[in-house]
Structure formats: C-alpha cells, structure tokens
Design a protein that fits this description.
Keywords: Cell membrane, Membrane, Transmembrane, Transmembrane helix. It is found in: Cell membrane. The protein is an all-alpha fold and 202 residues long. It has one domain (4-200). The chain has helices at 4-15, 17-27, 33-64, 69-88, 93-98, 108-117, 120-128, 137-159, 161-200. It is globular. It starts with a helix and ends with a helix. The relative contact order is 0.23.
C-alpha cells in the first residue's frame, strides 16, 4: 500500500492544477463556453495518455538504453529541483506559460497538455513513483489512479476556471505555484539522496 496522500501531494505539486487556470483562461479567452469545455476535456485526456505512457514505458525505455534507474532518479531529482527553483525564483508557472498561449495552434495540446499539465516534472514523477524494483503492480496501479485523480482535479479547475480565477486571482495563483515549488524542491532533494544511496549501495 502506497502513501496515497503523499503521492497525491507530489503529483499536485508537479502538475499544479491551480497554476493551470490562468493558462487555460488565456488560451480559451476567445471561445464560447461549449468550446472551452471541449478544450478542457481534450487537454485532460491528452495529459492522461502522456503520463500513463511514461508509467508503462518509461522504465522500459531506460532499461533498453541501459541507464540505471538510480542514475535516472538522481538526474530526475536534479531536473525537478531546477524546475522547482524556476517556480520559486523565476516566473511562476501561470506567468511563464500564458506567454506560450499566443502562438499555439492546437491549444488543448500546447501549451495546456504539454507543458502546463503533463510537465517534465510530472513525466519524471510518473517514472520514479512506479519503479518495478521498488513497487509491485498493485502499488503502481494505486500510483496511477492517484495521478489520474489529480488530473480530474485539473479538469474540474479548468471547467470552473472563470469562477476560481475571480477568487484566486493572478497573484494568488502565483503564490500557490511558488509554495508548490518549495514542496517540489524538498521532494527533489529526497529523490537525489535516495538515488545516491541506491547507486552506491549505502
């Protein structure tokens, strides 16, 4: 049995549903309500497909190219840490990805599904939290279900985007994104330390 609450918080931090709201509003500002719902649903389904792919095939790809999972865990932790630093000190996710909204043709895929929802951090998390040597099939299934539950939260946030944005605002979304960055930095540090321990057999 996995720690469902911790796993949910981890995926919530890397996916950042609240930070997706300003991005969604930016890319759908010229659409009617029905079209917005279609974009939200398509973005959620595309994100789910991408992340489930990494759950199923991520470790297989690493094995095929002979990269130890501990090395990937260290590298992934470093990438997650840099990603977290960009959330804390750089432009927050809503500010950065809203700028991408103006140039995308298929707004449901870019920038909504990738990189806003199925972010690089989320892809890494999908692999690291479903390691075959560390988790059995039932635990991997629990992790996948928890990940999909976070994506349901993302979908609900997008469907209620206008109302939530009025409550949270741009500043609120930015603050939440930075808090998620702090949580993610802590998780990334633990990932690096765990990878070093596994690699050197400490």
């Amino acid at each position: 049995m996995i720690d469902i609450v911790a796993t949910f918080i981890f995926f919530f931090a890397v996916i950042d549903p609240i930070g997706t709201i300003p991005v969604f509003i930016a890319v759908t500002r010229h659409l009617d309500e029905r079209a917005r719902r279609k974009v939200a649903l398509r973005a959620s389904l595309a994100s789910a497909a991408i992340l489930v792919f990494f759950v199923v095939a991520g470790e297989l790809i690493l094995t095929a190219i002979r990269i130890p999972l501990s090395a990937f865990q260290i590298a992934g932790g470093i990438v997650l840490f840099l990603f977290a630093l960009s959330m804390i000190f750089g432009e927050a996710k809503p500010e950065k990805e809203v700028k991408l909204a103006n140039g995308g043709r298929d707004m449901a895929i870019f920038p909504l599904a990738v990189p806003s929802i199925a972010s690089p951090g989320a892809m890494l998390a999908a692999v690291l939290l479903t390691e075959n040597d560390r988790y059995n099939l039932w635990q991997q299934a629990q992790t996948t279900i928890t990940m999909l539950a976070v994506l349901v939260v993302v979908l609900v946030c997008m469907l209620l985007a206008s109302r939530l944005h009025r409550v949270v605002g741009e500043s609120g979304a930015s603050i939440i994104s930075r808090v998620m960055g702090m949580i993610l930095a802590s998780v990334a540090t633990a990932s690096v330390l765990g990878g070093i321990k596994d690699y050197f057999g400490i």
